[in-house]
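Progress narrative, work stream C.
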Amino acid sequence: MRLLNVGDFHWMTGAEQHTANLSLFDIRRKFSHAAVRANDLVVEFSDRAVARSAAPLGLRPLGARAADRRFLQVVDELRPDLILLHFADDISNAALAEARRLSQGVTIADINIDPIWTPKNWKRLSSRKGVADALFVTTAEPSLAEHVGPTAFAAFLPNPVDPAVETGRAFENDAPPFDLLFPATDEEPRDVGSRLLEPALATALLKSDVPGLRLLAPGVGDEPSARGAAYFEALQSARIGWSLSRRSSVPLYASDRMAHFFGWGLAVCLDRRSGFDRFYDPSEAVFYDELADLAAAVRRLIADDARARAMARRGWEKTWSVFHMDRVYAYVLAQLFDEGGARHYEWPCERWS
């Protein structure tokens, strides 16, 4: 199969300014990895980089027409069987319609990993309505069907782990310098049990409940964010990872940091309401209802490192058996191309239409 994978692949165009801004854990890269391992031909197209480099003064919105033109040139040469769109905002729906003419029988799927409740993403979810054949979202919400056309469907997409990306084994670290890792990219309030707390306040309250807690919280408060190799080092330097999404009551939604933590071999703490206890039992992850429950669990794991390491290993093993990127890729292909869609996966396989 020939796959055209479209998204921001961080081609160096000068807009990064002080950093390369590499998002090494991005799911679009993981799709490319899995497709190559499946012996599929993959071409990556960075719509934003093309638009930016073609625009006057590097003003990306002015280069959208050039991105369309170059995209269609690639389609014409590759004649892909499948086009995956990852927030490919600089590719117009008109260009996608033309892509169907150039590559007869091509299937087009839109991938969306952002929170479904934000106004920006709510608009983006419907942006390919009537153009894409499928919408895959990292939230198990049947109402996503309203964002697809009459012949298309929406489906759940789990956050995967990839053997080329999540390469650590934190549970093999005999003496990590930190007890708990909690990265956050902003101070937007988040669900912590029944409370809505900014990350800085949430960590302050947790530290007060867990005396002596060695906390690594990149991006929280005045702490610098950890990117690239610095993030790899952060994952390897803690025993426990707190996976705190902006909302915990949305079915099977989580920041992709959850996959990073499990895939890297940390003992992972999750709000019970998110529903991930359908995949992990209490020996494989911590599930809490309120901040006090989380604090008590963290205290227990710090006091019994053998227990913490055993939990981390079991959660790691479960994650790699269920959410391996090659398996998630096979699931997406089954949803798109198999009669009746995908079957026999642990997560919801309905095609909402």
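Work stream C, second folded protein:
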Amino acid sequence: MKIFRERIEFETKTQIEFVNLTDRISEILAKSGIREGVVTVFSPHTTLSVVINHNEPLLLQDFMRILYRVVPVDDQYSHDLFELQRGMKSDGRSNGHSHCKTLLLGSSETIPVERGHLMLTDLQTVFAVEFDGSRKRDVVVQVMGE
């Protein structure tokens, strides 16, 4: 079994943002030379998720609206108070809501590879979902197989 790993680096511009990674993941898969196996896309950040869904602008607006409704920014998050009380080094962001959103969506996706291609349908896109932007970010793409 062969393992190939590479990072995708990008910068987000808004607090919540869906970043399409599909083409860049496909490029890494092609570079790996692996024809049959799996690709795992992993976020090493606690306020950035990785998800697969349909890339349709109005649907992305719906996702954002639901995320704001389920985990509102203006709620009281103990995490924000903990940082203040402990005098922890902080970048000035109250981001308890961002951590909670990531908990709901998760930090990775695994996609089967068949004949050198991601087994995604035409309607599926791999997104990095930013919850605490704007920031410099990265995800790890690991390809395993033959």
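Residues 2-21+31-130+140-145 form a domain with the Jelly Rolls fold (CATH 2.60.120.460). No further action is required on this item.
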